[in-house]
Design a protein that fits this description.
Number of strands: 6
Largest sheet: 2 strands, antiparallel
Radius of gyration: 24 Å
Helix content: 55-70%
Strand order of the largest sheet: 1-2
Shape: globular
Strand content: 5-15%
Order of helices and strands: HHHHEEHHHHEEHHHHEEH
Number of helices: 13
Oligomer: single chain
Length: 464
């Protein structure tokens, strides 16, 4: 493998680790804010217990996310210095805004959130929790603005030395054509990732003790999120796909496996093996004209194929094709689990259906797999460009020799699997402990001593 392939592999490896962590903390920070609001409004100790339970996990995951994010910045200056030089005037300020707004907000209030429970009032502590939750969203806003501009670049000017320079309107750069769709789709994915992780942990403890109030509450809240948000995410993904068809048609052609154009309606290829060399999908299982119906809302609408794209400009179809199907398949499974949970809830069997709980445990990591698959579709489908249609990946890399990049990739692999492996082990160890079943406030003191009368306990078998 040459230096370019190794540099791409290194970035893919490190971004895969990093992306999993913000995808969890974005949703988990909001979950913590909701738990604290519910505790302040109801006085029920179960919400305070769950807050303390998930706060420990949030702290560990947030720390790992910060460390892995620093490595991403490092690579811009080493492996991708040409890209940084050419696109830096546009993406550099946007990434700086992420640090100046989101990271400072998170770092400023995280200490109060983690260590201020016994030192500040309840209202101020909630402000800290809410600020951290808002900070995670702002961080996603700026990072996705950068990535979306690389996918659909607008609002720029080309300088004399070939650099991309910001035009008269930063708003055009930030709110580029794909940004709103990508922001909604990614943030909803983060919420679903957290919901299924929380639901999986709750289901795990329900299988051991279905009377544990913390396990019942977290499972119920997670299943509400699955029931309500998974269908919305499917609609958001459809809108994002239509936007991608307009601005990055080659990516959609690879997602659909359309090597040939279809003037009278394109089939939906469910499964098969794309052979890019032969420009065909071998063993394809198709639904006639369904792709045109989905993408154009007309079964007879023509759709262009990769035969209209030069071979050198085609993305790697196998990766995009299968990553897209993994993402969609998991999304449909999430919606199905949410529907099953809704039926069980209406029948007052949400906490008394072991098969549902076992499936929820199995689906606990599903969100992480889905976001990785979606990221693979987004980034691999943009190839062979870093700035779509303008700057090719081969022209973006630093002039490095392959052994130098291979050495750093090997070092990253050893350190990542050691450090983050230990972090994952500790997080799983925290999740394996059942949530506290007593009635206590955020500071751990009994609720009655804090002057709050606990609400009546939820009856066995009643819906939460």
């Amino acid at each position: 493998m040459d230096a370019l392939i190794l540099a791409r592999a290194q970035f893919a490896f490190t971004v895969s680790f990093h992306f999993l962590l913000p995808a969890f903390t974005i949703g988990l920070a909001s979950f913590l804010a909701v738990l604290e609001v519910l505790w302040l409004r109801t006085g029920r100790g179960v919400y305070a217990n769950l807050y303390r339970y998930w706060l420990k996990i949030f702290a560990v995951v947030f720390a790992m996310g910060v460390v892995s994010g620093l490595v991403m910045s490092y690579q811009f200056g080493t492996n991708w210095s040409v890209f940084s030089d050419k696109a830096g005037p546009v993406i550099g300020p946007l990434m700086a805004y992420e640090v100046l707004t989101a990271f400072f907000l998170e770092a400023g209030f995280l200490g109060v959130m983690l260590f201020g429970i016994n030192k500040v009032g309840r209202g101020l502590h909630f402000v800290a929790t809410f600020a951290v939750a808002v900070g995670t969203f702002i961080s996603a806003f700026w990072i996705l603005a950068v990535n979306s501009w690389m996918q659909t670049p607008v609002g720029y000017e080309i300088g004399a030395n070939g650099q991309f320079l910001p035009g008269p309107s930063w708003a055009a750069i930030i709110f580029n054509p794909s940004f709103p769709y990508r922001l909604v789709h990614t943030v909803l994915a983060a919420y679903l990732t957290t919901a299924f992780a929380v639901g999986g942990v709750g289901a795990w403890h329900l299988l051991k003790d279905r009377t544990n109030p913390g396990a019942r509450t977290m499972f119920s809240m997670a299943m509400w999120m699955a029931t309500l948000v998974a269908p919305v995410q499917i609609l958001a993904g459809d809108a994002h796909g239509l936007n991608t068809l307009e601005h990055q048609p080659a990516k959609v052609m690879a997602m659909e496996g359309h090597f040939q154009s279809h003037p009278d309606g394109a089939p939906l290829i469910l499964f098969g093996w794309p052979d890019q060399q032969a420009q065909t999908v071998r063993g394809a299982v198709e639904i006639p004209k369904a792709s045109s119906l989905i993408l154009k809302h007309d079964p007879d609408a023509p759709l262009k194929g990769l035969d209209t794209i030069a071979r050198a400009d085609q993305p790697p179809v196998v990766i995009v094709f299968w990553a897209f199907r993994i993402m969609v398949g998991i999304g449909l499974a999430m919606a199905g689990l949410g529907l099953w949970a809704l039926i069980a809830r209406l029948r007052r069997r949400l906490f008394d259906t072991p098969l549902l709980h076992r499936l929820a445990v199995a689906m606990g990591p599903a969100g992480f797999v889905a976001v990785l698959a979606g990221w693979a579709v987004t980034e691999t489908g943009r190839q062979p460009y870093t700035v779509y249609g303008l700057l090719r990946t081969v022209d973006s890399a630093s002039p490095l020799d392959a052994p130098a990049v291979a050495a750093s990739l090997a070092a990253f692999a050893v350190v990542y699997f050691t450090v983050f492996g230990a972090g994952l082990w500790y997080v799983l160890k925290l999740m394996a402990k059942p949530p506290h079943a007593g009635e206590s406030g955020l500071d751990g003191a009994p609720i009655r001593s804090a002057g709050i009368t606990p609400a009546p306990a939820v009856a066995e078998g009643a819906p939460a």
